[in-house]
Write a structure and sequence with these properties.
mainly beta, eight-stranded antiparallel sheet, globular
């Protein structure tokens, strides 16, 4: 598990269109984890768990902004996936080290492809 911040989930790459399904609506700090099922993010003081399955993930990217928020010089991990007929992208900050986040993005992409 890794401490991090969830920036929100964009619909069709539009930062002003946020995905509001249970577990995805509220932004905030929490714990990021990978397991055999997929990606999980548990926000502090929240009951709902954000979950993205490996079979839903289409790509990953690393940037400076996501969902209308700046990462504050921290790399933002962007995980693109399909759900309910929508193209979605969730954003997380997990580390200040760009190489570490880029490696995580590559690892997620390879697990999703297999």
């Amino acid at each position: 598990m890794k401490q991090g911040h969830y920036f929100g989930t964009e619909i069709d790459g539009k930062w002003w269109r946020r995905y509001r399904a249970p577990g995805f609506f509220a932004r905030g700090n929490g714990e990021f984890d990978l397991d055999v099922i997929g990606i999980h993010f548990k926000r502090k003081l929240a009951k709902e768990l954000l979950h993205i399955g490996w079979d839903e993930i289409t790509s990953t990217d690393v940037g400076k902004w996501h969902a209308g928020q700046w990462g504050g010089r921290r790399p933002v991990l962007k995980v693109s996936f399909h759900r309910d007929g929508l193209a979605l992208t969730a954003g997380f900050t997990l580390s200040t080290a760009w190489p570490e986040v880029e490696k995580l993005a590559t690892d997620i992409q390879s697990k999703a492809a297999s």
